[in-house]
Amino acid sequence: MLDNPMMKRCIGMGALGLALLSAVAVAADPASESGVYTGHDLVVHAQARTPDQTTAFYLGRGFPAAMLKEFNQSCFVTVSMRHTRPDVVWLEPARWRLRDANGRIIERRDRHYWNRVWKAINAPHASRATFGWTQLPESRDLQPDEPVGGNITIVPPTGPFSLEFRFATGKNKTGPEIVGRIEGLVCQAQESDMVTGNAP
Amino acid sequence: MSGTRIRYGYRKRPVTRLGAGAVLIGWIMVSTLAWAADRPPGLMVQNGRPAPDLRLTNMEGEVTDLRDLRGRWVMVHFWATWCGPCRKEMPSLQRMVQRMAPERLHLVLVNTAETDDEVFAFLGLVAPDLNSLMDRDGQVTEKWQPRGLPSSFLIDPKGRVRYLALGGRDWASEPYLAFLRHISQAPAAKVPTTRR
After folding, report:
1. A12 to chain B: closest CA residue
2. H helix and E strand count, chain B
3. Which of A177, B56, B119, B126 is most solvent-facing, going by the fewest CB within 10 Å?
4. Considering only CB atoms, which chain B residues are within 8 Å of A148?
């Protein structure tokens, strides 16, 4: 199934459509939906992707099966944010904390982790590049009204989990720190059938 | 005598009105020029560092080398078909090109790590007049270090990075067109270099 170009295109377009639709839906009324934090003149959206959504997106971009199998071992959480503060807000996912319902820390898999994996399986450079641009930056001095979005990847937790984020502010990070939390995120447990070829 | 005074009086009023009109017109002209020179939202001033090398082919195999474009302003725009803001912004880039003199500003699209099929299918739908260079393995994009996709760098005629656009925007809207026209007719040395 992975070798069928028509299937790849269909899945890719489907995933893209889902992503675009969900982006529109999330943007409609951030205050009234789950997965959204608003406060301190910033808005943060977070949404855990299903394994099928993640696999369909990268499969549609021609990613090799070996990379897709690696994705099935992680949960992808799409995060986007924008602020209207007059100063700089520092995006640093390494300072964020993800916790399960029992308060246990959930491990985030950063770019170093993925670079080691890609090197080990000799992943194509184009796919590595695309994957990298779909991830949230590891550090970014967000200017007023500068949009940013991308995925963070975590070890799939069982049950709902929370995302607690911390943002330093000011050019030299000397401004007040912003702390916020998004609750009730859920990663689906099962792997995507698209990778194993068991899809109907 | 009194008639003279009246005539004088009648002559004086038009002169006053003419002066006020001239002042008003002058103020409007100055304001318009000042507005045109204003930097619209989302454009970060850069420090004038030399632009990284950029030599890539488009889908027809034609080579573009950024060094060959010295002498005019160049917008280097990094994008990908999977990126929502890129998809939204691309039609405005085509409209911008249609409204700017090519000898003033040259648009260079760089697709990041996608295939000819993906780019051809997308551009044909949303911006058929544009062509894109193909950064097939993503290494050139990596060297330029955009803050994300899409990203647009404005390079001055001497090959220095002057502005970086944060995220997507309507490049064909009047504030951006006015800004691009303003910088592309000013000598490169007069472009502000203060970093925000």
Report:
1. B82
2. 5, 8
3. A177
4. 147-148
Buried b / exposed e over B24-57, threshold 16 CB at 10 Å, is eeeeeeeeeeeeeeebbebbebbeeeebeebebe
Helix/strand/coil for B46: coil
Residue whose C-alpha is closest to residue A134's, from B148, B116, B133: B148
Burial of B171 (0-12, 13-18, 19+ CB in 10 A): buried
As a whole number of angstroms, the distance between CA B42 and CA B28 comes to 26
Supply the pLDDT for residue A199.
42
Global ipTM: 0.81
Cβ distance of A137 and B148 shorter than 8 Å: yes
Residue with tokens 């490049």: B171
**Residue B78: per-residue pLDDT:** 98
- Put simply, the answer to whether B80 touches A128 (Cβ < 8 Å) is no
Indicate which of A81, A89, A133 best probes the interface with B, i.e. most B CBs within 10 Å of its own CB. Answer: A133
Residue A67 · residue A57 · CB < 8 Å: no
- CA–centroid distance for B152 within its chain: 9
Q: Given A133, A140, A146, which is nearest B149 (Cβ)?
A: A133
pLDDT digits over A138-171, tens only?
Answer: 999 999 999 999 999 999 999 999 999 999 999 9
